[in-house]
Design brief:
alpha/beta
Amino acid sequence: MNIALFSDTYIPDVNGVAHSTEILRAELEKHGHNAYVVATRPALGFSEWDEKHRVLRLAGVEVKQLYGYAVTTPFHLKALREIAKLDLDLIHVQTEFGVGLFGRFCAKSLGIPLVCSYHTTYEDYTHYINLINSKMVDGVAKKAVAAFSRNYSDAALAVISPSVKTRDLLLKYNVHTQIHVVPTGLQLERFSPDLLNPDASEEIYEKAGFSETDSVIVYVGRIAEEKALDIVIRGFAEAHNAGCTSKLLIVGGGPDEDKLHQMVKELGMEGVIAFAGKQPPERVPDYYRASRAFISASLSETQGMTFVEAMASGIPLFARHDEVLDDLIIPEKTGWFFADEHDLVRCIRELEELSEEEYQAMKTACLKQVVPYSSEIFYEKAMEVYEGAIELFRHMNVIEDIDLRDDSALLYITGEEKEETKIQISLDDYMEEGYRKGTRLSDSQVEELKEREKGLLAYQKCVRRISYKDRTKKEIQDWLKQETDCGPDTIENVIRRLEEKGLIDDSRYAEEAIHRMKGGLQGEDRISRELKKRGISAEIIRQKLENRPEDEEENARMYAEKIRNTIHGESLVMKKRKIRTKMLQRGFSSDIIDRVEEDLDFTSDQSKETENLRKCALKARKRYEKKYTSSQLRNAVYRFCSAHGYEGDDINMVLEEMEWENGEN
C-alpha cells in the first residue's frame, strides 16, 4: 500500500504522538509498504521533502506553549500537488489541527480513504485558553472540544483510539464513526535493559549532579500543568525530609519548566531533584536504563507511552491511578499507585526497602507485562483498520435509524443503491460496537451483522425451547444444527451466550436429573446411561453421583419392595430372579442388589410356596393334558414347575397329591 501519515508533530519532537507516528511509519516500511509522513517545520516558505523523499515538511510557526509544535495552515496547494503524485491508498491523520485539517482536505480532494487517530484528551488542556480560571469558560471550552472531536472523528471512515478510556470518551461525544482500540506499539528492543551503557549512565549522573550510587527515579515527558509534576516534586521533598534517599531526574521541556525550577529552589531540593532538559529520542532509553524507577502523576494520558517505555526498560512505575494503566501496573509487582504527594512517600520508601532479589523480580515482571505492546502487534492491528476503511470506502452502508427494544436493537441500514435493510442485533452487540445513527458500515460488516442476526434469532428460539423444558448443551447444539442454517461459529456463539446467561448448564441439569431419577427409584447405572445419551460428560455425572451416595441403597430397597408386591403366584426363586432382573434394568449395581436381597423379608412368600406350586402344577397339567398322557404328562408338569423355580422334592410331593389317569398318584 501507499500510505501517508499526517501529523502536526514528528521526530525529533519528543512526545507520544511523534513517537507513535514514527513507529508506525517504520513498521509499515518494514512490511513492504510505502509510508510517507506529512509534518511541519518552523520556517516560512513552501513545503519541502527530506532527502529520502519520505517526509514532506510544511512551513509553520513554532508555538512553544503548545508542545513546541510548528503550527501551520490547513491549505497548501503545492503540497497537495506533491501528495497527488504519491498515488495513495489511504491517509491516516494523527493530529486534529493544521496538518490534520490539511490531511482531511487532501483525502476529500483526491478521493482517498481517511483514517484518524485520537491521541489527546483535549478536555485536560482547556486551561491553556481559560486564563481567568472561570468555570463558565471551562464548560464552554469542554463543549467546544466535544463538538470538535466529534466532527474530526466523523470525517474519517475509522477512528483509532489508543485505549478504552479514549474510546469511551469519544462515545460520550456521540461519535458516529466506528472506533477501534489499537494501543500504540513500541520497538521494545530499543529499550532493552540488556543495552545498558555504564558510560552513558555515568554521564547522566554527572550532569545531574548525582553520584553513581544514588537511587534515581526518572520522569520523561512534557513539562506542563496537565502532567502534575508539582505533586511529584512536593512528594519528593516530603520523602527527603522523612529520610528517603532517592533522587528525582526530570527529562523533557515545556511551558512550566521555569516555574518548576523555581519550586525546586524554594523547597531547597536542588541536590535531590535535577532537570536534564529535552533529549533526542535516541538518548531517552539511556535515561530509563540509568534509573531505578519511573514516575508520573499525569491523569491526562490516552495510553501513557512513557510508562510502556519505562517498563520495556525493566524499571517499575509510580503513578496516580488511571484506567489506562490498569493493564500495566500490578501493585507491588510492576509498580505502585499513589493518591497524592503524601502517599508518594510510602511508595518511595517501599522501593528503597526492596531486596535486590525482590527488585529483580519486579524488573522481570515489567518486561513480561509490556510484551503485548510490541510494534509488530501495533502494525497488524493498524493494517486491519486500514483494510476495513478501504473496503468501506468502496462499498458504503449507513445506519439511518435504530429502534431499541427490550432485548435487541433493530438497525435500519441504507446501502449504495439507497435500498433499506433491517437487521436485528443483540443489545450486547449494540453497546459493545457503539453503533449510532450515521455509523458507516462496509458490505462485509453488513454481512457479519446478518450472520449475527441469525445467531440472535436462533438464541431467542433456544430460550423459548428451554423455557418449556430444560436442555443439555448437546441437545441445543444438535437442534441448532438440524433446525437452523447457522454456521459453526454462530452456533458456538449462541451456546456461549446461553451458558453465560445460565440458561444451559450441564452441571445443574445433571444434578436436577439425578435428583428426579433417583426420586423415581432409578439406579446409578441407568442414570449414567441416560445422562450420557443427553451429552452430559462422564466427569460431571461422576461428581454429581458422588455427592448423593446415601440415596442409592435406600432407593434400591424401596424399588425392590415395590416390585416384590407386584409379583404374585410365583416361586420364591422366580420372584427373586424377577426382582433382580427389574433392578438391573433400573440401573442398580449387582453389589447393591445382593445386599438388598439379603435384607428383604420373604417370610410371607415362603408360607405360600406350596400353594403357589399346586397352582403351577394344575396350570401345567391343563396345558399339556391334550398332548401327553400318563407318565409323559407327569414329566411335562414336573419340568414346567421346575422351570418356574420350584424344588424337585416339593414338586414330587405335590404331584403325589394329584390324581392321574390309569390310577397313578
